[in-house]
Design goal:
Length: 105
């Protein structure tokens, strides 16, 4: 049986935590072990929303991993060459000009 006790969380004598711990699972055993009164069992009917079909089989999910782009390293190197080629050339030309200027003196 499936119950939606969202509206009962604040009123539950055992506190909301007890109900939240049972979320999404079969909590019949925990409910029975708590020794609920007849009025508590009757109150449950107000929150009943349906029954779980035990014959329905839930298919197992297939997990797919996204393949990483194998060209990432090459793209990174292309970007590095593209963005560092001009400054490196400017430094190289500056060094050559400085050496030539120093020789003239």
């Amino acid at each position: 049986m499936i119950y939606d006790v969202t509206k009962y969380l604040e009123d539950h004598p055992g506190g909301a935590d007890v109900l939240l711990e049972a979320t999404g699972k079969d909590a019949k055993e925990e409910f029975d072990d708590a020794g609920h009164s007849k009025s508590a069992i009757e109150l449950m009917q107000d929150y009943f929303i349906g029954e779980l079909d035990p014959t329905t089989e839930i298919p197992e999910m297939d997990v797919f991993r996204k393949e990483r782009d194998t060209g990432f390293a090459s793209k990174l190197m292309e970007s590095a060459v593209q963005y560092w080629a001009i400054p490196a050339a400017a430094v190289g030309i500056s060094v050559v000009v400085a050496i030539l200027y120093a020789r003239r003196k």
